[in-house]
Structure formats: structure tokens, C-alpha cells
Amino acid sequence: MPEAVHVASGKVREIFELDSERLLLVASDRISTFDVVLPTDIPDKGRVLTGLSGFWFARTREIVPNHLLALREDGRSTEARRLSMLPIECVVRGYLAGSGWKDYSATGEVCGHRLPEALRESDRLPEPIFTPATKAQTGHDENIDRERAAELVGGELLAEVERISLELYRAASEFAAERGILIADTKFELGLDAEGTLTLGDEALTPDSSRFWPADTYEPGRPQPSFDKQYVRDYCESLGWDKTPPGPELPPEVVEGTRARYVEAFERLTDLTFDDYLAEPEAVLS
Ligand code: Q0N
Questions:
Q1: Mutation to probe ligand 1, out of 9, 202, 206 (largest number of atoms < 8 A from CB)
Q2: pTM surpassing 0.90?
Q3: Distance between CA 169 and CA 94 in Å, rounded?
């Protein structure tokens, strides 16, 4: 990557600086489960996620401008406008899962939203809720209430961020549900561009930034299988692995089954074949 300077690493993505105004986001084929990155790659996972994110950026431009400038021919790299990122994660939940379910079970509330009584794990919420979080020191996200979020970004900006996040979730979850995928919750990262315009960054509405559930087996009262990672989780559970690093290597049938699920999510949502995407990544933008 002689044209670019490496500026940051995530668990599965790398960020390079192209110039003072542009970044290059590169999605690897690494997969994490139970918060541990496994030693075995899922071929094309980074391309699927890059393509899906691009697809959603193109489809949500009327809701909020986004940082996407171009998709590269490799299918895994996004040229993006550099933003000044807000110090909160904009989480929207339409169903009760993960830390939302945990907090509700303990207190009847999630991030200050008082919810109806007697909800079950994975129940659909009466309305989607905005539940901001911050990156805690541990690397784990910490849910915060709207008062704390307003201290971090200002009350006026927070109101706009909440409105946009809810609108994005509503549009995407409705679209995905029609294609057999429930987006239980999702995380957006927003920033300000050089003109101070609120802009959507990061990846958006991918299975790595959201919980995707298959609609056909949805049944509240229990945890739902993950649309994409369930083979990996089931395999890891079958080993009795203690979920501390290093994670186990995956056998070929788990790799192939998981790759097929990522490709299936891409094809259901975009109405393109994944081969169409490989031939011309920017096909997802029209
Ligand atoms: C950026 N991350 C991911 C926010 C950052 N378009 C952009 N401009 C500037 N910075 C970033 C982007 C993007 N995408 C995004 N790092 C830098 C990490 N998050 C973690 C939470 O806070």
C-alpha cells in the first residue's frame, strides 16, 4: 500500500490515510466470535461486507449524507471522506437481544427507555429505540443514557443524531424484513464533514455492525440464531472452547457454510449476484 499510510486497525478492518481529506477502509476476511478473532479466514467476507455497506449508503443518501467516495476494484476497499467522528456509537434496537435484553431483565429499562413489562428475550419492541453507547476502556461498548450522550455531543446534535439513526434503522429493517432478514439491532457511527454537516461513516447495516436473524425461524423467548455466524458459534460450542484467545481453527465445511450465508445475505438484500459484484463493485451503488 505505497500510496497510503496505515492509521488504525480494528478487529477485522484496517484504515489508511490517502490524503488530508480521504481515508481508505479495507475489510479483511477475518471473523470474530465471542469477541475473539479466529485464526481461519472466511473467503470474500470482507467483499460481502464492503458491498453491502456500499449498497446501504446508496439507498439511504436521502436520509443522511455518507462518507463513501468510491468502491475500489478489489471489492473490499472503500475510499471515504474524512470526518470528525462523534464520540458515541449510535445503536438502534428493534428487538430485545444482547446487552439490551440483559439490561431489561435486570431493570426493566434500556438506556433510560422504560419498556413494557413481561417482554421475552428476542421480542420485537413496540417501537425501535435509540440506545447510544461509548467505547469503554476495556474495548467493550458501554450503554449510556441520553443525558450522558448529550454531555458528549451536545443536546441539539444528539436530537438530530437520534432522529437520523431511527430513520435509517426503520428504512433498512423494513427493506430487509421483506427479504427474510430481521435486523434486530444495529450500530451507526456519525461524524461531521469539513462544512459541519452530519455524515454517516464507518460501515453501515452489515452483519458485523448489526444482528441479522433469519426471519423464517424467528421465535421470541429464546436467543435467535445468527444469520451469518451460527455455524461458527455452533462449531465453537461443540468443542467446549472456553472463549478466551486463541480461538480454534475452523474446518472447511464450517468455512464454506459461513461463506455461503454471507453471500446469501448479500444477494437477498441487493438483488445482485455476488459474481456481479466481483465483476463491478460499484454495481451496488445504482
Ligand atoms: C474513523 N473509525 C472506526 C469513532 C471511530 N470517515 C471517517 N473519518 C474519520 N475517521 C473515521 C472515519 C470512518 N469510517 C472510523 N476510526 C476512524 C472506529 N470508530 C470507533 C468509535 O469512534
A1: 202
A2: yes
A3: 8
By DSSP bridging, strand 68-71 and strand 90-95 are unpaired
d(CA 202, ligand 1 centre) in Å: 6
* 86 CA distance to ligand 1 middle (Å): 9
23-27: long-range contacts (C-beta < 8 A, 24 or more apart)?
A: 23/79, 23/80, 23/81, 23/82, 24/72, 24/77, 24/78, 24/79, 24/80, 25/50, 25/77, 25/78, 25/80, 25/203, 26/76, 26/77, 27/76, 27/77, 27/78, 27/203
Give the model's pLDDT for residue 136: 82
Which residues sit with their C-beta closer than 6 Å to ligand 1? 8, 15, 23, 25, 67, 80-83, 85, 135, 189, 191, 201-202
Our measurement of the distance from residue 12's CA atom to the centroid of its chain's CA atoms, rounded to an integer in Å, reads 12
Q: Which residues contact 244 (CB under 8 A, 6 or more apart)?
A: 36
Of 81, 141, 87, 85, whose CA–CA distance to 111 is shortest? 141
Mean pLDDT confidence for 176-190: 98
Kindly report the protein residue whose alpha carbon is nearest to atom 4 of ligand 1: 85
pLDDT 10s digits, 30-41: 999 999 999 999
CA atoms within 13 A on the CB side of 14: 13
Give me the amino acid identity at 187: K
Residues paired with residue 84 on neighbouring β-strands, in sequence order: 192
pLDDT at 250 (0 to 100)? 98
For ligand 1, atom 13, which residue shows the shortest CA distance? 202
Q: How high does pLDDT run on average in the chain? A: 97
Instruction: Name the helix (H) or strand (E) containing 106.
Output: helix 98-107
